[in-house]
Design a protein that fits this description.
Blueprint: H1 5-18, H2 21-27, H3 30-52, H4 62-94, H5 103-127, E1 136-139, E2 143-145, H6 152-158, H7 160-182, H8 187-193, H9 200-231, H10 240-243, E3 250-253, H11 260-284, H12 288-305
Helix pairs in contact: 1-3, 1-11, 3-4, 3-5, 3-11, 4-5, 4-7, 4-9, 7-9, 9-11
Length: about 350
């Protein structure tokens, strides 16, 4: 029986997470753009895997599996890193010590965010080779999955960084909420005085997204760590040759070989990724800025592509006067997470 819902919702998640992209590009919030990139790329990879390996476990597209398996390892730390950078920024912009930042300050923050959201995942992907017992696994319906040799080094490399980042996000989120509660009545004025591109609504949407991701990300991360360390035996990392013996092996897992309980847990971990993308769209896809943008793009499409003559709309929104025959100029807008997809 084919699981057609897996590729359908994966590709739908890619579309939904990319819809608000133009406004986030204008905002130049690296943490949010990184979150969009990781969600879009990994959901696309999941969708392709679900199509290729639906109802089969044949070994093909080995290089594709090498790439996707490493990407899923990186995703496990990238999403909590994005959440960490978002909550760090929210705490900074809401605190009393925040003043108007210069262009140099913004560039420095962007570089730091890039180090967390892409630099750290790349390092983890490289270090994963130390605890990669064999090339990869192929699971029926879900396709390529990374393998982790469950040992003390494996736990430190593949699980601990995501948990630490999630704990850091919780601390920053608590401080940010404290700042908001302390000056909630003048908070909008505080954001305007600081010349931040945030307003109260955008601030709360970012915070809601980060808190939701932290909640299930930290819970699933701790559960995965518990299951791999307490319920399963932690093996000793003896030496390189022992851990990487027969490294080119590809493990095959038809669904009938996977106990129902393990399959249910695998599906739970699998659905977290498209659910996160859809959650992102729910927070930002129906905002006032997004709806105005949809209308503007629709009018641009009719005017430029279909060559239709449209009446000049009277606009009072954030796009200013007229729409012209080119894509509209968007306001500067700063919108706004770890689990490991392993089998």
């Amino acid at each position: 029986m084919g699981h057609y819902e897996l590729p359908i919702f994966s590709f739908l998640a890619v579309l939904l997470v990319l819809l608000p992209l133009p406004w986030h590009i204008k905002a130049r919030n690296v943490a949010t753009l990184s979150l969009i990139a990781w969600l879009a790329v990994c959901n696309f990879m999941r969708g392709v895997n679900a199509v290729i390996w639906m109802n089969n476990v044949h070994i093909h597209y080995r290089v594709w599996c090498d790439i996707t398996a490493k990407a899923f390892i990186g995703m496990g730390v990238a999403l909590p890193a994005c959440s960490f950078c978002i909550t760090r920024y929210l705490e900074h912009v809401s605190s009393a010590r925040y003043a108007v930042t210069t262009a140099a300050d913004k560039r420095r923050r962007q570089k730091i965010d890039l180090c967390f959201t892409f630099g750290l995942p790349i390092i983890i992907m490289c270090l994963h080779y130390v605890v990669q017992g064999h090339r990869f696994d192929i699971i029926e319906h879900t396709g390529c999955q990374p393998h982790i040799y469950i040992s003390i080094p494996g736990i430190i490399i593949c699980f601990v960084p995501a948990i630490i980042l999630s704990l850091g996000s919780i601390i920053y989120a608590a401080l940010a909420l404290h700042h908001f509660a302390k000056r909630r009545f003048e908070f909008e004025q505080h954001l305007r005085d600081s010349q931040s591109s945030l307003n109260t609504g955008r601030y709360l949407r970012l915070m809601g997204l980060a808190l939701t991701e932290m909640g299930w990300g930290e819970s699933l991360g701790l559960y995965t760590l518990y299951r791999n360390t307490v319920l399963n035996q932690v093996r000793p990392w003896t030496n390189w040759n022992d851990v990487h013996y027969n490294f080119s092996r590809i493990a095959i897992w038809p669904q009938f070989l996977i106990p129902p309980g393990d399959w249910a847990r695998l599906m739970l971990l699998w659905w977290i990724l498209p659910a996160t993308a859809m959650l992102f769209f729910l927070f930002f896809g129906f905002s006032e800025e997004a709806i105005e943008g949809y209308v503007a793009c629709y009018r641009w499409f009719r005017r430029t592509i279909l060559r239709q003559t449209l009446p000049v709309a009277s606009t009072t929104g954030s796009y200013g006067k007229g729409l012209g025959t080119s894509l509209p100029q968007f306001n500067k807008y700063v919108p706004p997470i770890g689990w490991l997809s392993t089998a």
